[in-house]
Design brief:
The structure holds 2 protein chains of 2 kinds. Chain A has helices spanning 40-46, 55-65, 72-84, and strands at 10-12, 17-21, 26-31, 34-37, 88-90. By secondary structure, chain A is an alpha+beta fold. Chain B is built from 13 helices and 9 strands. Chain B has a 9-stranded mixed β-sheet, with helices on one face. Chain B has helices spanning 44-57, 75-85, 100-109, 132-147, 166-175, 190-194, 196-199, 203-220, 280-286, 288-291, 309-312, 317-324, 340-351; strands at 13-17, 61-65, 88-93, 113-118, 153-158, 180-185, 225-229, 249-252, 258-259. By secondary structure, chain B is of the alpha/beta class. The chains are: A alpha+beta, B alpha/beta.
């Protein structure tokens, strides 16, 4: 698989919807007739994938929000996996 | 050891059967055979209350079906309400009644997904694929669905009389640019059970259809994903029906009757509550009908002591009742069921070249 460019702008895949569900205390990804319950870090990454922010922006924002560093590789790995599963897409 | 019903989670899946009315007369319909005797349909305001209350409990997926939901003129309004509440909205339709104006209205109301089912619209049911009227209608609707940027999801119900046409069906799906095709073999409830002798395919038919499906997957798998659902009569273990009654799924019938499964209405001894009399919360958490089949205290042998009971929940309660007369029995699809011979006998009869001469019963008012 190609390495993900730092300038890539991932966005929630077509036909899918991400939302916070208080009843499940989690972000969920909704798709036709189904649902994936996301864990905390997956939810935090996915909610920043708005098609405007780049991979680099997303990482910087997460590191700032959670007062940490060195998240780059994990964020890129998750986004690559999510792209493969079509939870996310890169619109050209 | 049996375990008591744990406190259930929310009804994540809400299926609103808006009406039993339908312009079609399918012989495999799972709607109740006495559907025309049910009470008046819920009003728009009543459906909106159902949506609000279910959403407040945590329901996220909404199915709008029927009958044919588009027979009702308020589908657009209900979709808008559901969308504003945060539901992911799925319309399950035959496409009859779906024109561009309505699709545009549904899109702007926030409809997320459409599942187009392919049915026989001819009463004579000769070769349903030669029914050009149906083909043209479906093609038109399929093109519209594409135009409005929805994935094209086609559902085709298979049975003995059309399963040999899987190749033509998949060719048709390709020409409609379907993204997903579900080839769902008939399940034997309602009208389909009445017609089971004519609808159950032979093993050879099933094997041929699966081989054709596999070939299409190899050739076109990148553009079109195909799901093939085998009829459970051919399985050795039952399906985990509804993931256990009362665990995830809540169906509201056209007259407001609340059901743990759309086929459960005929189960005897259970008084299914009506949304006209009770809130969704009290129906889901407190009613005896919804608590009855939770946990496993209701089970009989061989399920009660079976290590697989937490995996398949004893199978389908409706099938157990329809075939054995007792909804607490093991689903006779399971080869451990003492009633399994009822299923194998039906399968054996399907191996005969000519099944009975009993006429097909088309879904109709009666």
């Amino acid at each position: 698989m190609n390495t993900l460019a730092a300038s890539a702008k991932p966005v929630i895949g077509r036909g899918l919807r991400l939302q916070w569900e208080p009843a499940q205390n989690a972000h969920v990804l909704l798709y036709p007739e189904g649902m994936i319950k996301l864990n905390g870090s997956a939810g935090e990454i996915m909610k920043r994938c708005d098609g405007v922010r780049t991979l680099e922006d997303i990482t910087t924002d997460l590191e700032r929000t959670f007062a940490t560093t060195g998240l780059g590789a994990d964020v890129a790995a998750f986004i690559s996996m999510a792209l493969q599963k079509k939870w996310l897409e890169i619109r050209l | 050891m049996t375990t008591p019903a744990a406190h259930p989670g929310p009804p994540l899946w809400l299926l609103c059967e808006l009406t039993y009315r339908c312009p079609l007369h399918c012989v495999f319909c799972y709607n109740p055979v006495d559907f025309s005797r049910t009470g008046p349909e819920l009003t728009s305001e009543e459906w909106q209350r159902v949506l609000r209350e279910a959403r407040a409990l945590g329901a996220v997926q909404l199915g709008l079906s029927g009958g044919e939901p588009l027979v009702r003129e308020d589908v657009e309004t209900l979709v808008a309400t559901a969308h504003d509440l945060g539901f992911y909205t799925n319309l399950i339709t035959s496409g009859v009644g779906l024109n561009e104006a309505r699709l545009q209205a549904l899109k702007s109301a926030g409809l997320d997904h459409i599942q187009l089912s392919f049915q026989d619209s001819t009463r004579k049911m000769n070769d349903f694929l030669s029914s050009t009227r149906t083909f043209e209608l479906k093609s038109k609707v399929a093109a519209l669905i594409k135009k409005y940027d929805y994935p094209m999801v086609l559902n085709v119900v298979l049975h003995r009389l059309n399963i040999d046409h899987v190749e033509e069906i998949l060719d048709m799906a390709l020409s409609m640019q379907a993204d997903y095709v579900e080839l769902a073999n008939t399940q034997y409830y309602g009208w389909a059970l009445k017609n089971r002798e004519q609808l159950l395919p032979s093993r050879a038919q099933l094997a041929r259809a699966e081989a054709v499906t596999q070939r299409f997957r190899e050739q076109h798998g990148e553009h079109m994903r195909i799901f093939f659902v085998v009829p459970d009569y051919f399985e050795r273990r039952p399906k985990a029906c509804m993931n256990g009654l009362g665990s995830l799924f809540l169906t509201i019938a056209p007259d407001g009757c609340a059901l743990p499964c759309q086929a459960a209405r005929m189960l005897p001894g259970l008084e299914f509550p009506n949304v006209r009399d009770a809130s969704i919360g009290s129906i889901w958490y407190d009613s005896s009908a919804f608590n009855h089949f939770r946990g496993d205290a209701w089970m009989k042998e061989p399920c009660r002591s079976c290590p697989e009971k937490s995996k398949d929940f004893g199978g389908c309660r409706c099938q157990a009742y329809l075939l054995t007369g007792d909804a607490a029995n093991a689903d006779p699809v399971c080869e451990l069921s003492p009633h399994h011979h009822l299923v194998t006998a039906a399968v054996a009869r399907a191996e005969q070249p000519h099944v009975s001469e009993q006429p097909l019963v088309f879904r109709d008012h009666r």
